[in-house]
Structures are given as structure tokens and as C-alpha cells.
From TrEMBL:
Pfam families in the record: DUF302
Protein name per its UniProtKB record: DUF302 domain-containing protein
PANTHER family (alphabetical): INNER MEMBRANE OR EXPORTED (PTHR38342:SF2), SLR5037 PROTEIN (PTHR38342)
Sequence ranges assigned to domain DUF302 in this UniProt record: 57-119
Species of origin: marine sediment metagenome
Length: 151
């Protein structure tokens, strides 16, 4: 698995730039903007669609405070109880993965990426049953938000 993460996944991301990829439960999109601009665009589209922004964590700033270096890396935490609660009613353990998160980072070549949890992965991870319409709605919304933030 380590070889996969070190070589195959980065090669796949390089070859499929611009496409949405899913690996180990993470959907990843290439961004046309900086990390900060992508995070700003994401927050704007989330707010415009009734999502509450719960936090924005600048991991690079945290690293700097510990006298360490990290390329720009931002985590945006967001959600809406009207969406999350029905998922938790189907499988309460999904609460460990809620609220939703989007990670935006700059790789070693300067390319910016946005990644978020694949709802289908959450379905499998938490053995969610009877919530396919809710999961489909979440999948569509997350894809829409990510596309708006990265283009």
C-alpha cells in the first residue's frame, strides 16, 4: 500500500489532471486557483447554498507556529443539520465524519488540489442502509461545490 501511495497515486493524479478522482474514499479535483482563492471560493459557494462554515484551519500557519514548513494546506469544515441529521439517523457512526470537510493543498509542483470524502465511501465505512436518496443528494451537492471552487 505504501508503494501505491508513493508512486501510483501521484502518477495517476498527474496523468488525470483536471479530472475528479476517487482514491481511498477521497474525491480530488485540480484547482485553477491558489489555495487561499480556492478556499475563499468554496466558502462563498457553501454560504450561498445554505451551508454553515464551522471552521477554516490553516495547517501551514500551524506548522509555522511550530517552526516547521508546510506547503499551503487549508481545511474547510462545513455542514447543515438538515443534511447531516438524516445520514446520522441511518447510521449514527457517520457522525465521526461529519460535519463535512474539504482539504485544499498545494503539491510539490505548485498545483493546487481540493479533496473531500466520497459519500459512497462513507456509505461503505458506516454500513449505511436506506439512505441512498440522501447520499445521492450529498454527492451531487459536494461535486457542485467543489467544481465551483476549483474552476
Amino acid at each position: 500500500m505504501r508503494i501505491f501511495r508513493m508512486f501510483v497515486l501521484p502518477l495517476t493524479l498527474l496523468l488525470c489532471s483536471g479530472a475528479a478522482l476517487a482514491a481511498d474514499g477521497l474525491i480530488v479535483l485540480e484547482s485553477n486557483h491558489s489555495v487561499a482563492a480556492t478556499a475563499d471560493k468554496l466558502e462563498a459557494v457553501l454560504s450561498a447554498n445554505g451551508m454553515k462554515i464551522m471552521n477554516r484551519i490553516d495547517h501551514a500557519a500551524g506548522a509555522k507556529s511550530a517552526d516547521m514548513k508546510l506547503r499551503p494546506t487549508v481545511l474547510v469544515i462545513f455542514g447543515n443539520p438538515k443534511v447531516g441529521t438524516p445520514l446520522m439517523q441511518c447510521a449514527q457512526s457517520v457522525a465521526v465524519d461529519l460535519p463535512q470537510k474539504a482539504l485544499i493543498w498545494e503539491d510539490e509542483s505548485g498545483q493546487v488540489w481540493l479533496g473531500y470524502n466520497d459519500p459512497e465511501y462513507l456509505k461503505t465505512r458506516h454500513a449505511i442502509e436506506g439512505c441512498d436518496p440522501v447520499l445521492a443528494k450529498v454527492s451531487g451537492a459536494l461535486a457542485k461545490f467543489a467544481k465551483a471552487a476549483t474552476h
